[in-house]
Amino acid sequence: MSELKEAPQAVEPFPLSTLRHSVAHLMASAVAKLFPEVKFGFGPSIEHGFYYDFDLVEPLTDKDLKRIEKEMRRIARKTPELVRHEVSREEAREQLAGQDYKLEALELIPEDEQLSFYAHGDWQDLCQGPHIDTLDRDYAFKLQSIAGAYWRGDEANPMLQRIYGTAFWNKEALTAHMEWLKEVQLRDHRKLGVEMDLFSHHAEAGSGFIFWHPDLGCVRREIENFWWDLHTRAGYKPVYTPLISRESLFAVSGHLENYSEMMYAPMDIDEMPYRVKPMNCPGHILIYKNRGRSYRELPLRWAELGTVHRYERSGTIHGMLRVRGFTQDDAHIFCTPDQLADEIAGVCSLVHQILTGFGFEYTAYLATRPEKDTIGEAESWERATAALKDAAKMQKLPLVLDEGGGAFYGPKIDYKIKDALGREWQNSTIQCDFNLPERFDLTYVDSDGKKKRPILVHRAILGSLERFVGVLIEHFGGKFPLWCAPTQVAVIPIREEHGEYCRGLAERLEQELLRVDCMSQEAHMNKKIKEAQARQVPFMLIAGERECSDGSVALRRRGTREQEVMAFDDFLELVLKLRASRSLELV
RNA sequence: GCUGCUGUAGCUCAGUGGUAGAGCACUUCCUUGGUAAGGAAGAGGUCAUGGGUUCAAGUCCCAUCAGCAGCUCCA
Predict the structure, then answer these.
(1) pLDDT tens digits for A278-322?
(2) Which residue minimizes Cα–C1' distance to B48?
(3) Per-residue pLDDT tens for A397-448?
């Protein structure tokens, strides 16, 4: 797979983030010049560049970006020197007169902190720095986009206009970054979804609901099979639970109380309110509670590809990555406190197998007890957190500490995966829960004959099929590995009279449950090759006179133009082997 | 939800208040081609939807729906 990452930086006179912060200042000064009535918000450097927030009367347009860039270059030439001066709080207030947001920002700075301004030309900004020394150094920058952003990220506050830009120490690095952005755009799952006929959504059906087309259906089914194979081996049993349930169930679970803004309105069935489930746990818990449980049957590992529906605000919906109806690869483990560490270790191992099965690198984060509003005894938290740590140790899994990042009902391990473009996504999660066993009064009879409380572990590895497959489309750039590719083999006759031979080959492949497209329709061979290539079919088999006469095929692998002539049986062996191993090799 | 932008053929996009366009894809016919586009013809549209302004609206205005860039929130 092509490893496309951001180009490494050459030796830098200042850190890249410092440069970007300084260019943000430069941009703000240009905006001040062009729009004298502007009020300034914050303007930090961020992962791939910088932004600055402005309160302007008129909305900015893309044309303004060009004007601002031009003004920036002028200012950088004319008054390049960045000068720091320290001031008292009183002086700062005076100098920020009329700048409401800056004055508010000033109040956020602790009393004992030394205040400073950075100035170039006649523009200055309250800022602790650091900055580069002069703005006329060699570097390259670009203003990228305009967007709304709430002052201090709070939607109760007024909305400011944010300009995003980026900067690098040389033109080559900026160009490389722009190339990377282009690649990100090319691989966008929404774009590929249309081009490859993978999925759609419809105004008729409503925003945020995904329609999986047949080709993506194949991909999903393969992923589900892979998932079930590993889960079955890991001792999970399948369960199936209803999409809707009586509202009272969600009152017991607490979802109604804590999660109602995400839940769809009740529907009336026999004068009783029912709700569409936003999570699968209550259903699994009802199965657990269906009869008494003994310590002898724990741990119980129950898995369900459970479809849930959640209300998401209209502006948050995004392709397959953020939707209103989705299928979680959910499972719940009911176990004794003593079993917890082993169970978590088992999940960690499963996460590893599944994520690396798709070629993802990952990082795991241990999220511990939040400072307030938690439930459960301190001792339970300690034991569970220790179990998570022990499990990670057993699996030799390094954990990054996310202090206080746990849920209110228990500590958790979250995973972030890194895709082929170096972007991070959060999908997998393993969560201990002290809350639901309590609310549903879950028990098991221990060896001493006493009723005890089991621990509940929620875990999802793919997260949701929608989000995971969306990420996967971008990760592979539409080039699915053989085992889950929608069409695995394209068979192409050179002339019409070779069609029969090709159909014979296709049939033998189909008998092995391979997904085959026998392109025997009337069209020129070159056109079919182009089409198969465009559809990212892993293998093309091309057959003409020579192949028909000796039972061979001319194999062309995705991404190459070379042909390998081989006996059909040898090809069959090759393709079956690759499929069985769920190989990620680009064939 | 909020700010800004967008909605014309299946896709990518032209279109000056006055007769609805191109390329690709599709259909039919011709073409028998050895590794990325053979040729010709044809069909395809309530210009997102609903109001309004106007002699006249794809074009201007408003609303709704949907999408895009973000903010906030999240699997």
Answers:
(1) 999 999 999 999 999 999 999 999 999 999 999 999 999 999 999
(2) A203
(3) 999 999 888 988 899 999 999 998 888 999 999 999 989 999 999 999 999 9
Mean pLDDT of chain A: 92
Q: Write out which nucleotides of chain B lie closer than 7 A to a protein Cβ.
A: 1-5, 7, 11-12, 30-38, 65-75
Give the nucleotide at minimum CA-to-C1' distance from A327: B75
Q: Which amino acid is at A65?
A: L
Closest CA-bearing residue to C1' of B36: A530
**Rounded distance in angstroms from the CA atom of residue A209 to the C1' atom of nucleotide B51:** 29
- Of A375, A404, A9, A428, whose CA–CA distance to A177 is shortest? A9
Residue range(s) in chain A whose domain bears CATH number 3.30.930.10: 199-240+280-476
Task: List, by residue number, the catalytic residues of A.
Answer: 281, 310, 328, 330, 332, 412, 458
The CATH 3.40.50.800 portion of chain A extends over: 482-580
Q: Which CATH class is domain A16-181?
A: alpha beta
Please tell me whether residue A295 adopts helix, strand or coil conformation: helix
Task: Please tell me the distance from the alpha carbon of residue A316 to that of residue A414, in angstroms, as a whole number.
Answer: 22
Q: Which residue has the higher pLDDT, A212 or A57?
A: A212
Residue A498's nearest nucleotide, by CA–C1', is B32
**A501 CA to B38 C1' distance (Å):** 24
Q: Please report, rounded to whole angstroms, the spatial distance between the CA atom of protein residue A414 and the C1' atom of nucleotide B75.
A: 12
Smallest CA–C1' distance to B5, residue: A61
CA distance A175 to A12: 17
- 8 Å CB contact between A205 and A211: yes
Q: How is residue A454 written in tokens? A: 């089991």
Question: Do residues A430 and A385 lie in contact, with contact meaning Cβ atoms separated by under 8 Å?
Answer: no
Contact between A468 and A494 (Cβ < 8 Å):
no
Q: What is the ipTM of this complex?
A: 0.94
The contacts of residue A232 (CB under 8 Å, 6+ apart) are none
In this structure, chain A runs to a length of: 587
Strands A45-46 and A49-55: antiparallel
Indicate the fold that domain A482-580 takes in CATH: Rossmann fold (3.40.50)
What is the location of CATH 3.30.980.10 in chain A?
16-181
Identify the pLDDT of residue A1: 35
| Through-space separation of residue A233 CA and nucleotide B61 C1' in angstroms | 64
pLDDT at A262 over 70: yes
Cα distances (angstroms) measured from residue A23 to each of A46, A177, A412: 12, 17, 40
Which nt is closest to the CA of A544, judged by C1'? B34
Q: Are strands A115-120 and A83-87 parallel, antiparallel or unpaired?
A: antiparallel
Residue A142 CA and nucleotide B66 C1' are separated, in Å, by 32
Nucleotide B10: nearest residue by CA–C1'?
Answer: A194
- Please give the CATH superfamily to which domain A199-240+280-476 belongs: Bira Bifunctional Protein; Domain 2 (3.30.930.10)
